[in-house]
Structures are given as C-alpha cells and as structure tokens.
Amino acid sequence: MSGDYLDINRRNWDERAGLHVAAPGYRVDRFAEDPAYLSDVVRFDRPRLGDISGLDAVHLQCHIGTDTVSLARLGARMTGLDFSPASLAEARRVAAGAGVPVEFVESDVYGAVDALGGARFDLVYTGIGAIGWLPDIRRWARTVAGLLRPGGRLFIREGHPMLWAIDERIEGPGLAVELPYFETAEPLVWEEAATYVETGGRTLTNTVTHSWNHGLGEIVTAVLDAGMRITGLVEHDSVPWEALPGRMHHDDSIGEWRLTDRPERLPLTYTLQALAG
C-alpha cells in the first residue's frame, strides 16, 4: 500500500498543479505584481509565527509554493519540499516571478531527512491540508524532529480532525460525523473530479486519492514522543476555504470562512507549535 498511495496521490496533485496556478483563489499573479503580497494563509499565521527573518526554514508539502514564497518575504531562507514534480515546476515559476530565492526539492515527506539533511532547519512549517495525505502521523513527527536543529521550531496550521470527520456531502443544516476521526490502517479512498478551488469548470482526470485523518491527541502524542516540547496549541473557528458548502459565510475581517449557524459548535483549524530538544 505504501507505494500505491504515493503514486495515486502524485498523479492527482500533478494534475491539480496546473489548475491551481490558474485559479483565482490562489492569486498567483499578485506575487509578481506586489512585492509585499502574502498568501491569505501566511497572513493569518503572522501573529503566531512572529519574527522569522534570518531563519533556515523548510515548508513541507509546499505544493505550488505560494505560502513558501510568502514565508521567504517575511525574511526566512526558504526551502520547499513536495512529491509532485508538476507542483514544484509551478512553484519555481511563482518564486521567479516574485523575485524571491527559494530552493525547491522533490521528495515525499518521509524521505525529507535523506533529501535535505538532518538537523538543518530552525523552522519546519506545514500548512493546511497537508498531513491528511500521510498514513502515519508518528513517522511524520519523527521526520520533523530529524529536520530541526536543537531549539528549532515546528509550526503547523491544519484542518481540525473534527472538520475532516464531517461528511460535507450530507446536505442540511446539521453536521454529520460520518468519517473517521482517528488514524486508521486503511485509507479513505475518494474519487472526485473537482478540486477545492474554482477552476472555471475544468476538472481532473486522475480523480482517485487516498487520505487519512489523525486525531488531535494522536498528533500531540506523536510530537511529544518524537522528543519535541509543545509550546502552543490554538483551535480556530475559521478555515481558508468554504469547507462545508452552503453552511458557511466569508468573514472579510480575517479573510476566512466560518460556520453561519452557531460557529462555536465546531473547531475548523488549529495551530500547533513545538520546539526540538
């Protein structure tokens, strides 16, 4: 199974890369037009990121590099890592257009230490929608720990595992917990021609993906067992895209989506930070 999920998901993400770089939601042109422009995700993260200028940082599962370039604009010496060569080709174009130096490296996450070198980074950054493509959260945490220098920091903002457990396909005002909350041995297998941003009607031909959920306790325990010390855990009631269509509204004040009805019912994302020993 280990090789199969990588091949299946890589074909899907190779195809998504072209759709996403052309999608209005990614605003790729803004990076070349405005030297101060940051992605919405990194702009949201800034109060918790703090000053990252001068840090050696790696963005795991960087996709087309919009967050990676944004972090470089905040002063970090950035490396972006992704398993999709098509995504990395687009990421290099985004960085070149923005005039920002970023090193992009092709590797799956579990091979990151071999691809990049151990104990090399002051900051490991992982963004929303990343770790759900990985089958083993403990192995992910060990990889992060292996990349960090002593005292280096993990920063992850992710979709909350309770959000991933909600089946968005069930219509109506209620929230139905129909999908696994905890990590399972077997993946969730999806077949979807659409992606998560507006693509002008263009659809995918490589429609199958494999994904896994990881409970918040499983993530925290994996980080601790990998020898890191947790310094912050914040749950948010907002998410960068309309994760539950028809049940959310866009909050312009933060540039994210919230539940319209009783938003206090459901955490949508979280930020976790930890330091390497």
From TrEMBL:
Name of the protein this chain belongs to: SAM-dependent methyltransferase
Record Pfam families: Methyltransf_12 (PF08242)
Presence of keyword Transferase: yes
InterPro entries according to UniProt: Methyltransf_12, SAM-dependent_MTases_sf
Chain ranges of the Methyltransferase type domain: 59-154
SUPFAM superfamilies with a match to the protein in the record: S-adenosyl-L-methionine-dependent methyltransferases (SSF53335)
UniProt keyword annotation of Flavoprotein present: no
GO biological process per UniProt: methylation
Protein's organism: Catenuloplanes niger
A molecular function (GO) term: methyltransferase activity
Superkingdom per UniProt: Bacteria
Gene3D superfamilies in alphabetical order: Vaccinia Virus protein VP39
Keyword annotations from UniProtKB, A to Z: Methyltransferase, Transferase
